[in-house]
Write a structure and sequence with these properties.
By secondary structure, the protein is mostly helical. The chain has one domain: Tetracycline Repressor, domain 2 (Orthogonal Bundle). The protein is 72% helix and 0% strand. The chain is built from 9 helices and no strands. Pfam families: TetR_C_31, TetR_N. This is TetR/AcrR family transcriptional regulator. Keywords: DNA-binding, Transcription, Transcription regulation. It comes from Promicromonospora umidemergens.
Length: 198
């Protein structure tokens, strides 16, 4: 890190700690991450963890929330870039198909959900991220004339979460298998396989 300013070094250390936290949460679970192991993984001095973050919990929380927010923002872009909500929902589902429920990203989300049952601050912040995404989905559905946009958005999001959880238990489960059902749910009428409405 030679040649860096103190500010740049600080940003670099924070980024390394956050990345190490995401890796370790996926590997050993939320409760298995210790400050010492985290510092070793990030390649920084033990004391720098609490210099940059008020607590280990705050670090784990930020690492998880940043990952979730980034992933959902990318998923929302698939929705807003689609010709209609049914196409967007299918694109989001197929994007989710890369996750098998046991990969690092899936495990990070699952651990985050579990931790949120005991951490009210994490739960509130996760809820805000989910509501933001659900609002984007509901708005897209409403703009297309869906008669129950808010309710459909809630069910679709729950289906995505369940899809990731179930893939870890059922390797045969895939996006294409359930896409027609979600297309129908996202449509304003009967949805054809090519996305046309009739």
């Amino acid at each position: 890190m030679s040649g860096q300013t103190n500010t740049e070094r600080g940003r670099d250390v924070r980024a390394r700690l956050l990345q190490a936290a995401r890796e370790l949460i996926s590997e050993v679970g939320w409760g298995g991450v210790s400050t010492r192991v985290l510092a070793e993984r990030a390649g920084v001095r033990y004391g720098l963890v609490h210099y940059h973050f008020e607590s280990l919990q705050a670090l784990l929380r930020q690492a998880t929330l940043e990952a979730m927010s980034g992933m959902l923002d990318g998923t929302a872009a698939l929705l807003t870039g689609a010709a209609n909500p049914a196409d967007g929902v299918e694109a989001m589902l197929l994007e989710h198909d890369q996750y098998d429920g046991t990969d690092p990203a899936s495990l990070l989300f699952i651990e985050g959900y579990l931790a949120a049952t005991r951490d009210t601050e994490l739960r509130d912040q996760m809820s805000a991220i989910m509501i933001r995404f659900r609002t984007t989905l509901a708005t897209s559905l409403a703009d297309a004339g869906h008669p129950s946009a808010d309710e459909a958005a809630s069910v679709i999001m729950a289906a995505f979460d369940g899809f990731i959880l179930h893939k870890g238990l059922d390797p045969e489960l895939s996006g294409p298998r359930i896409a027609p059902i979600l297309r129908t749910l996202a449509g304003t009428g009967t949805t054809e396989p090519n996305g046309a409405q009739r």
